[in-house]
Amino acid sequence: MATDTGGRFDEAGGDVSGATGLRADLGLGDTRRLRRGVGGVVGFVVVWHLVSLTTSPIVLPSPAAVAEAFVVELASGTMTAALLSSVRHWIPGTVVGTGLGVGAGVAFGWSRVLDDVTAPLVRALRPVPPLALIGFAIAWFGLNHAGAAFIIAVGAFWINFYAAYGAVEGVSEDLLDVGRTLGVRDDLDMIRSVVLPASLPGITTGIRTGLGRCWMLVVAAEIFGVPGIGREILRASNNLLVDTSIAYILVLSLMYLVVDVAFRATQRRVLAWQA
Amino acid sequence: MAGVNGDGASTSDVGGAENGGTTDTAGGTENGGTTDTAGGTENGGATAGTDGRRAADEGVVVDRVGKTYGGSGSSSGETAVRALDDVSFAVDRGEFVCLVGPSGCGKTTLFRIIAGLIEATDGTVRLGGAPVTGPTTDMGVVFQEYHLFPWLTVEENVGFGLDRTDRPEADRDARVTEMLELVGLDEFRDAYPKSLSGGMKQRVAIARALAVDPALLLMDEPFGAVDAQTREMLQRELLDVWRSTGKTVLFVTHDVAEAVTLADRIVVMAADPGRVREVVDVDVDRPRERGDPAFGEHVARVRDLIGTGE
User: Fold this and answer.
1) Which residues in B lie closer than 8 A to residue A178 (C-beta atoms)?
2) Does B152 touch chain A (CB under 8 A)?
3) Which residues of chain A neighbour B137 with C-beta distances below 8 Å?
4) Beta carbons of A183 and B212 less than 8 Å apart
5) Complex ipTM, two decimals?
6) Nearest-angstrom CA–CA distance, B29 and B27
7) Which of the listed CATH numbers 3.30.230.10, 1.10.3720.10, 3.90.76.10, 1.20.1250.20 matches domain A71-270?
8) Which chain A residue is nearest to residue B212, measuring alpha carbons?
9) Orientation angle between helical segments A31-53 and A2-11, nearest 10 degrees
């Protein structure tokens, strides 16, 4: 079935759109790419397996051992609980950080005054890594989901802030002129009708980058004891259970993949007007 | 412009018949009237004649407009550049005027001042008797690079200006359809600009500019970015649109043959600083053929004034 479809698309010159969006989102636009991708994964696992034969399982466990650890953790319910726990701070952290980042980026990118007032502050705060704020997270929110969400939100904020800021700054002056000649009179109408749609490609690229970064920050956010996938990775590592640790890293990767594919499909739909 | 004869003739025509009369003005009478003007006054007369007629009958009046960039007042110490100096001319209601000149003569600066997008250092621009102080929907502006909103469909682009008026929904839709039919793009109403050719994009831009029913259609080298064949087709279409809507048109171009094809009168500019060199009447019947000797004479005359051999 899948091969048939793929064959047709090969004949059509690899043209992919619309209905085959999901496969395209996975980066599997045509059968040749699909075959190469599968080949790459299989090759990687084979090399991994061969290398693991030459070392102790503490240095590098075999793929089979990782798969076994995955099944064990899943069967015991630990993995599901950890994932649900991570999601409980990943979602609010990502949503709040993304929302504030895009909002601030658009506002500061649009308003010269706001930008001038905040520029020194922004430059001073920008280099602070989210992890360095763990003390504040604990003091302000405690050892809980809110504290972890704070760390994630900080990471999401800066990525989205700069993406939105740059996108708004890059909006063509000519389009603003056209808006003015067609009766756009106030800033709010200009932002809603011209600036936001024109900068949407840049903003959504920022959001997509941020979504990935937030999964990475899950590990950092759980470093001080909030339960979740990151916590399990750290605990397994501390106990030299490298296979279990890798199994949880895999969960993180899969979550990222699912979210990224879903977002890219949405992005494609929203930006259907793009050339 | 300034000639009493010319003003008298055109005013009575336009004033007398409003919509119905504008076609007449375009096709027949204006030639006789404006010839007098050319012989008598050349330029500089834009202000003199305005007193005698009703402000509402005025099209566009560019009155002693000057523009200086940098220099005095700025702390940067750069030398002042005089881009425009004492530019005066007028476009009567329903008239089609082209603005030509060598590169660097400030055509685009003047276009942006008339559109209200930048401020003049000296002088004023009046539209229908009222000074232009900023962008106004009484002017439909068409840019060289179309500048359609890529995220809006053809239909939404044309409706953009109407959405900012208090027209009822049904009224708005009818107007959009009317505009799309005017430029022959009704079947592409749901397409995004990315799938349109350059010529089609510019038609959409014209429809978008005309949708809010502005008093003036102001165009800056609108056909400069399309191929020669499309350009000629768009020129013919623009003349049709002009004839059927009776709009006042001010059309900036660097293409002398284009100006002679389109205009009732051609304002020829000179550079350093940008100023009006002369206003040339084009008293050739439409449709104008490039092979016609009168056409060639006008082209030669304007090119001579611009000072380029080509």
Assistant:
1) 141, 143, 147, 149
2) yes
3) 181-183
4) yes
5) 0.78
6) 7
7) 1.10.3720.10
8) A182
9) 120
